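Input/output pair, single chain:
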Amino acid sequence: MIGRRITHRMADGIRVTGTWRPVFIRNGDYFLTDLFIYADGLVDCWGLVTLEQFEEKLRCGWVATELPDGARASGHELAAWKFSEPRAWLTPELLLAEVRDTVDQLNGRPDSTDRCLDAVDAFLADRTEEKRAVARAAYLAIPRTQRHYALGDMDRQDRPLQVLVAGPGGRVEARPDGDEDPVTQEEYDEAVDYFEDRAEWLDKRSSRVPADGPVTPLAPAIQLYDSWPLKPSDDPDTRALRNNWPAPVDVDGVTYPSVAHAYWALSTEDPGVRARIAAADTAFAARELAAGAGRRDGWEQARTAVMTRLLRAKFAQHPHLARVLLATDDATIIYDDGDSRFWGDNAGRGRNWAGRLLELVRSELHAERAGISATTTDQPA
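Output:
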């Protein structure tokens, strides 16, 4: 199961999503390590292999599912120990099945659990013994270690599923403490009721929309590329959202040629450098002047607040630019900045704070347009 464990590798410039799980590799001794599983079907078990090659690694014991008593083991630079009465939960067949399911999940394809639940739905729609047999086979195809997760019900686990595919008079999987009695008609009817209630709940959940709107943006993302030169226009496009767009900004009685000029001026305490930055021909020249002067104390912690203030000033003082920002609706704004991975997204390698703050100020403008107060003057009691 993937859970929150997401990683990736690059292959021919393409990002291949993956996940990982712990395993033991047997290379003389036993080594506790991570098994990386990728969406393209390759598995890294101290070297990338295909699923077929991974099966061979399991069969020969390189990826170990049997842990002999007294065998030496270690975790890299963590600890070393010997096994004493070890209990392993997996067999080669089970681990291979789990890995195959994981590849399906990484690709958004139905895994063995999904296929089982589809077969159950088909049986409930047409309750023939033939379709029950198909559903039972699909249930048994789920790796045993994953069956109790199939319904997502930690109270009942997979009990209703076992009863349904067994049918009245049939037998469910035996518990560790002994054989199960045959399924009674009452148990079976309760299982059918469970699935009918579950179907109704799933239908309601699928049509449910969060009370305050969708999770993801409705508008397509936009990217604000580094571009040069930038010239004022009566009909600007989204390039006008960039911080170096020539839109004069008045801050504390001083007018700066752009947000970028104001940002760099406020980053230094030297009045002379501030004046030269305000007079700089380009945002690049402003940055170079500021770089030579050094940052004021606390700048790193305050810079996002300063940039937020400057963006608010820019769009308040230039309504036609505010209209450009509002026209992006709720799109994700991806901001490129070749000089900063803090402000720029930079092909996913940066933090994109410039884009995020533009989205924040845009939200405030939308709130203002809708007559919604986005700030409060209330003081704590």
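The longest helix spans residues 185-206. The chain has twelve helices and twelve strands.
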